[in-house]
From TrEMBL:
Keyword Mitochondrion belongs to the record: no
Entries under InterPro entries matching the protein: Methyltransf_25 (IPR041698), SAM-dependent_MTases_sf (IPR029063)
The name this protein goes by in its record: Methyltransferase domain-containing protein
Record Pfam families: Methyltransf_25
Organism name: Hyphomicrobium facile
Lineage: Bacteria, Pseudomonadati, Pseudomonadota, Alphaproteobacteria, Hyphomicrobiales
Residues spanning the membrane: none
Record domain Methyltransferase: where: 47-128
Any one Gene Ontology molecular-function term assigned to this protein's record: methyltransferase activity
Protein keywords: Methyltransferase, Transferase
Keyword rRNA-binding: no
Length: 203
């Protein structure tokens, strides 16, 4: 499984155009979580979207709502699509695990991306979230429902997913200075996603 986790970036780059088309044509069944995220942010907030994909529908919705988006994805094809669709926003080709942008954001997203990281890489992301979070800031990501690794499939290729358990996520969030404000396990109104919404403390 570790080997499959190392193929995530090449997997998405290989299937980038197909994935983009499938995502745009699919129903947006997780929008209720983005609405919670957006509803708790001030107008014009700066948002860091980690694993932004091709920017549709999430980054486009954020930009149209007046937010300033910085999108990060390791797929050059995805970032090229983002730049063509939303040239006024900032787009960066990078591995989310190694970024250090030197600035902070009012909101940080790792939606439908964080769960592709190996367990140890997920643990290492929480200091990175904190490094890029203003005080206060919102953090939203989704995971699996319980500890473990799983292999899905997309276009005939295996697709790696992993999750820690809920208690460890809570501990990692607390250690990074975040408080959980909303959490759902396999939310039936969001395509079965297990979602986390947290807030960093104000200074």
């Amino acid at each position: 499984m570790t080997d499959l986790s190392d193929r995530i970036i090449t997997h998405y780059e290989r299937h980038a155009l197909a994935w983009d088309a499938d995502r745009r044509n699919a129903g947006w069944n997780d929008k209720r979580w983005l609405d919670q995220f957006v509803g708790a942010l001030p107008h014009g907030a700066a948002i860091l979207d980690l694993g932004c994909g091709a920017g549709v529908p999430i980054a486009r919705h954020l930009a149209e709502a007046g937010f300033r988006v910085t999108g990060v994805d390791a797929s050059p094809t995805f970032i090229s699509l983002c730049r063509s669709r939303m040239p006024d926003q900032e787009w960066i080709v990078a591995d989310m695990r190694s970024i250090s942008l030197g600035k902070r954001f009012d909101g940080v997203l790792a939606w439908d991306s964080f769960f592709h990281l190996k367990p140890d890489d997920q643990r290492k992301m929480f200091p990175l979230f904190a490094e890029h979070a203003s005080a206060p800031a919102l953090l939203m990501f989704n995971t699996g429902p319980a500890y473990g690794e799983a292999i899905g499939s997309y276009r005939g290729d295996p697709l790696y997913h992993a999750s820690l358990d809920a208690a460890e996520y809570r501990a990692l969030l607390a250690a990074a200075g975040f408080e959980v404000i909303a959490h759902a396990v396999e939310d039936p109104l969001a395509g079965g996603r297990t979602a986390w919404l947290a807030r960093s403390a104000a200074t």
